[in-house]
Amino acid sequence: MAKTVTLHPKGNQMKYKETEFTVPAGKKVKVVFENTATSPSMQHNVVVLTRPPEQKVFRKVGEAGMSAGASNDYVPQDMGDLILAHTPMSKPGETVSVTFTTPGETGDYGYICTYPGHWATMQGTMHVR
Ligand SMILES: [Cu+2]
């Protein structure tokens, strides 16, 4: 593993505490999400996208996540080209993670939480350097 990154929610807000992190290009990394929220409605995941952080892409994936429903962890099943990796959905108090290979191309890649209603504010940027 080239790097392990640990993310958290910002209290009980629909926001990440860490809105950016940096990883090396073309390496295996692990993203851990510790759901330290206490409000039962604050379920979260981390969905890393193959695109730069742009509102229109966040919206597309976020809305498709809502349509995908709870049985799919609110992760779109037909957007493989937009989704690089994602953690399972976490309830408050749970820790989830995902291991993946970072893009070979340096640049900025967006990530969001796809729990319904969260994508618009729960956003971040993965810097690949
Ligand atoms: Cu969330």
TrEMBL record:
Residues 5-128 form the Blue (type 1) copper domain. Pfam families: Copper-bind. Keywords: Copper, Electron transport, Metal-binding, Transport. CDD domains: Auracyanin (cd04233). InterPro entries: BlueCu_1 (IPR000923), BlueCu_1_BS (IPR028871), Cu-binding_ET (IPR050845), Cupredoxin (IPR008972). GO terms for molecular function: copper ion binding; electron transfer activity. PROSITE patterns: COPPER_BLUE. PANTHER family: AURACYANIN-B (PTHR38439), OUTER MEMBRANE PROTEIN H.8 (PTHR38439:SF2). This is Azurin. It comes from Salinibacter ruber.
